[in-house]
TrEMBL record:
SUPFAM superfamilies for the chain: Putative cyclase
GO molecular function, one term: arylformamidase activity
Protein name: Kynurenine formamidase
Gene3D superfamilies: Putative cyclase
GO biological process assignments: L-tryptophan catabolic process to kynurenine
Highest taxon of source: Bacteria
Length: 218
């Protein structure tokens, strides 16, 4: 019997977003309540990169695929979960680290579990000192022709690079049609090894990214 883990952060009012002027503050407002026999309804406002979400190639690549142009079957697939837990702030995950944890197969969705979201989501440091992939690791994933890479941290690149408008990992992955899954959570219980991933984002027309409900089956 397989088990299912919900690897998704809940979205809530005033939830933290990436600290940049182009990311909106999160607003989740109940616009009607059950009062007087009415139905409950809400309105949402949040950045395309708040919480657990998918980065489409278009996020960094002007001619890259937009979210609604990625074939839907790419969001469900087999892959591998590798653990790089408790390495501390700003830990770099290298190509050698990945090779040491196991085998990547063509078409895989690689999930890198670091424990960062579980420990630091809601703190300022979450977006400042996240674990990240090395550019060599990203190049290796391109060579292995994987489908996607996910991490339980806000971004695949080091925040230091992003602050300087550099994003070597995003550029090499998204530039080769490999989409990203960011701000995953709840991965500690999943054992290392082969998994099935369901990572279906909102179908935003011409989207650069959007929230996804991500489930891991093992
Ligand atoms: Zn993103």
């Amino acid at each position: 019997m397989s088990k299912f883990v919900d690897a998704t952060l809940s979205i809530y009012d005033e939830m933290n977003s990436f600290p940049a002027d182009y990311h909106h503050d999160t607003e989740i407002k109940r616009t009607q309540t059950h009062q007087d026999g009415r139905c409950a309804a809400s309105c949402f406002k949040f950045s395309s990169h708040t919480g657990t979400h998918i980065d489409a190639p278009f996020h960094f690549i002007p001619e890259g695929q937009k979210l609604d142009e990625i074939p839907v079957n790419k969001f469900i697939g087999t892959g591998v979960l590798m653990k790089f837990m408790d390495r501390g702030p700003e830990a770099e995950i290298t190509a050698a680290d990945i090779r040491n944890r196991g085998e990547l197969r063509k078409g895989d969705i690689l999930i890198a579990a670091t424990g960062w979201s579980d420990e630091h989501f809601g703190e300022k440091s979450y977006f400042q000192k996240n674990p990240y992939l090395s550019s060599e690791a990203a190049e290796m994933m391109v060579e292995e022709e994987i489908t996607a890479v996910g991490i339980d941290a806000p971004t695949l690149d080091s925040s230091r690079n992003l602050q300087q408008d550099k994003a070597p990992v995003h550029k090499s992955l998204l530039g080769n049609g490999i989409y990203a899954i960011e701000s995953l959570t709840n991965l500690a219980a999943v054992p290392e090894g082969r998994i099935k991933v369901y990572a279906l984002p909102l179908k935003i027309k011409d989207g650069d990214g959007a929230q996804a409900r991500v489930v891991i089956e093992y």
